[in-house]
Amino acid sequence: MKAIKVPEPFKIVIEEVEEPQVKSAFDVKIKVTSGGICGSDIGIWNGTNSLATYPRVIGHEFGGIVTQVGSGVKRVSVGDRVAVDPVVSCGQCYACKIGRHNVCSALEVMGVHRDGGFCEYVCVPEENVHRFKADFDEKMLSVAEPFTIGVQINTRAQIQKGEKVLIMGAGPIGIAAMQVAKMNGAEVIMSDLVESRLEKAKMMGADRVVLIPTQNLEKELVDFTDGEGIPVIIDTVCIPASFQQSVELACPAGRVVVIGLKSQPSEIVMAEITKKELTIVGSRLNCNCFDKVIEGLESGSLKPDKYVTHMFSYEQVEQAFETIRTHPQDVLKAVITF
Ligand code: MN
Q1: Which of residues 267, 282, 297 is at a domain's end?
Q2: Is the pTM of this model over 0.90?
Q3: Containing structural domain, residue 47
Q4: Predicted confidence (pLDDT) at residue 88 exceeds the cutoff of 80
Q5: What are the angstrom distances between the C-alpha of 299 and each of 49, 136, 165, 304?
Q6: Separation of CA 142 and ligand 1 centre (Å)
């Protein structure tokens, strides 16, 4: 079968590899139909993803149609349309034991630490497979994964109905987090440096947008919250300054969610956290979020159609990466079809 491989940074090849076989009773074999390209795939390609090792079959956002199941598989059967949770954990460590396997101390992500889903067939454990009930578009199955990131962020932020939320950054993660927050009944204001991204955010459900630096974010937040200050901030910009600003902008008893994987330190004023008794939490990958996302996608509260801006067949993978590299602001989510 064909697989999309990054043998070393700045190289991407379509290679003939051995087709995986169902080996355990709990294996599910899937014919991949849809693969989403993520910023982290770009990072593996250009050598900036510190977690990746080479050579690697990339792709952690993927889904397809079940073609074979092991004898012990109960939840899915041949012909089902499914999305795959790329998170693999040990089940033994502290985080796993308390139900937070997405931060397992021996965590592996398909397509990053081990081979992923940009290939014709995958074999994965049943527990990683999530079934779509409706007759969902097979080209869009990979969109579930980025939306699980949004659900995880909302869960970590404990976003409630009627709450006001600032999302910094209107990229794919910001937009996914926004749609989930809207599904949860929150009111969302989004900020970005790029006007076209904000227009898209508005079209996809954001209540209000702030163009930086043309508009003053602090002033807009005062207005948005009737002078109260913003209680929930999700920082998807992920630079030291945005983290710092989040802590400054959050109102008393507020929550800040951080998702960056950068290692540069940020200068955070301790008194801001103490005086306002802020809750600052990280959010990584997803912890059992697929079923909620699938429900949202099927009911129409999550809208993947505008989310996917580009579609390429797998033979055009180089072109897809090139498009993202040269037009990063125009691509919200590019999907590869197999
Ligand atoms: Mn992703």
Answers
A1: 282
A2: yes
A3: 2-131+308-337
A4: yes
A5: 35, 11, 23, 12
A6: 10
Q: Can you give the pLDDT at residue 305?
A: 83
Distance between Cα 227 and ligand 1 center (Å): 36
154 and 89 assigned to the same domain? no
Beta sheet of 279-282, edge-to-edge order: 208-211, 187-192, 164-168, 230-235, 250-258, 279-282
Same domain, 118 and 211: no
- Residue 232 Cα to ligand 1 midpoint, Å, equals 23
Answer positive or negative: Cα dihedral of 101, 105, 108, 112.
Answer: positive
Q: Is 324 helix (H, G, I), strand (E, B) or coil?
A: helix
CA of 61 to the centre of ligand 1 (A): 6
Give 58 Cα–ligand 1 centroid separation in angstroms.
Answer: 11
- Tally of domains in the chain: 2
Helix axes 172-183, 290-299, angle to 10 degrees: 80
pLDDT of the residue at 49: 86
How far does residue 333's CA lie from ligand 1's centre (Å)? 10
Residue 319 vs residues 32, 45, 148, 155: alpha-carbon distances, Å: 20, 13, 27, 36
Rounded CA separation 164/154 (Å): 12
| Spatial contact of 215 and 209, defined as CB atoms under 8 Å apart | no
Give the pLDDT mean for 261-273: 92
Residues 6+ apart with CB under 8 A from 41: 58, 59, 60, 111
Is the pLDDT at 123 greater than 90? The verdict is yes
pLDDT of residue 270: 96
What 3-state DSSP class applies to 125? Answer: strand
The order of strands in the sheet holding 2-6 is 13-16, 2-6, 56-57
Task: Give the Cα separation of 12 and 323 in Å (integer).
Answer: 14
**Interval between CA 265 and ligand 1 midpoint (Å):** 24
